[in-house]
Specification:
Oligomer: single chain
Strand content: under 5%
Number of domains: 2
Largest sheet: 3 strands, antiparallel
Strand order of the largest sheet: 1-2-3
Shape: elongated
Helix content: 40-55%
Order of helices and strands: HHHHHHHHEEE
Distance between the termini: 71 Å
CATH architecture of the largest domain: Orthogonal Bundle
CATH class of the largest domain: Mainly Alpha
Number of strands: 3
CATH superfamily of the largest domain: Tyrosine recombinase, N-terminal domain
Length: 212
C-alpha cells in the first residue's frame, strides 16, 4: 500500500511539478483574498497566521509537501504552543490544515499531516468588573487628566461601557442611529463590511447614555 501511494504521489508531482508547502500556502492565501465573505481584518489575520507559522518553522515553506510527516507537525506544535496564546495556536492549527488540504485536493500528496494535531483548551477568563462607584471614579480620572481630548476620551469610555459596543463599531455610530423615542441604538458597524458578525442589530439605551 505504501509503495502504491509513493508511486501515485510521484506521478502527481511530475504532472503538476513538485509542490512545496510554500506553494500550497500561496494558493491558500489567494483563496482567502478572493473570498468576498471575509472581512479585510479576517484576511489580514490569516496572513498573519501564515507568517507566525513561517517564523516558528523556517524550513517548512521550502520543503516538498510529500516530505512533511505527522511527527514533523507534532514537533512544530510543541514549539508553537510555547510562543503563542491558545486561541492563536488553535487558529494556526486550522490554517496549517487548510494549507495541506490544498495539496491533497490537487493530488500532490495523500493525507493531511496536520489532521491529528490537538487543539488547546481555552479557559474562560474570569471577569473582575469594577463597581459602579469605581467605574465613575475611573471615568472622572480620565475626564480631568488635563489633556486636550480628556473629556472626549471619558465620554467614549462611558459610551462603550453603557452600550457594550466594540470600539470598531462605536466609531461608525452617528446621531441618525439613535432612536430616543424607542430608547434604541442601531449598530451597523463599518458601512462596507458591517459588524464583526456581518449583521446589524439594535441595543437598548440605558441610563446615562444621553449624558455622554
Amino acid at each position: 500500500m505504501r509503495e502504491h501511494r509513493v508511486k501515485l504521489e510521484s506521478v502527481a508531482a511530475v504532472t503538476i511539478r513538485k509542490m512545496t508547502v510554500g506553494d500550497a500556502a500561496r494558493i491558500y492565501l489567494e483563496k482567502v483574498r478572493a473570498n468576498v465573505s471575509l472581512k479585510p481584518r479576517s484576511k489580514d489575520y490569516r496572513q498573519g497566521l501564515i507568517d507566525f507559522i513561517n517564523r516558528s518553522w523556517p524550513a517548512l515553506f521550502g520543503t516538498d509537501l510529500r516530505k512533511v510527516s505527522e511527527r514533523d507537525c507534532q514537533e512544530w506544535l510543541v514549539r508553537f504552543q510555547k510562543l503563542y496564546a491558545p486561541s492563536v495556536v488553535n487558529n494556526a492549527i486550522g490554517t496549517l490544515r487548510a494549507v495541506f488540504a490544498e495539496a491533497v485536493d490537487r493530488g500532490a500528496r495523500f493525507g493531511n499531516p496536520a489532521a491529528n494535531l490537538s487543539r488547546m483548551r481555552i479557559r474562560a477568563k474570569r471577569l473582575e468588573l469594577p463597581s459602579r462607584e469605581e467605574f465613575l471614579r475611573f471615568v472622572e480620572e480620565i475626564r480631568t487628566a488635563g489633556a486636550r481630548q480628556s473629556k472626549d476620551c471619558a465620554n467614549l469610555v462611558r459610551f462603550l461601557a453603557y452600550s457594550g459596543l466594540r470600539i470598531g463599531e462605536a466609531k461608525f455610530v452617528t446621531w441618525a442611529d439613535a432612536n430616543f423615542a424607542r430608547h434604541q441604538l442601531h449598530v451597523g458597524g463599518d458601512p462596507l463590511t458591517a459588524t464583526k458578525n456581518g449583521e446589524t442589530r439594535y441595543v437598548p439605551m440605558i441610563l446615562n447614555w444621553n449624558r455622554c
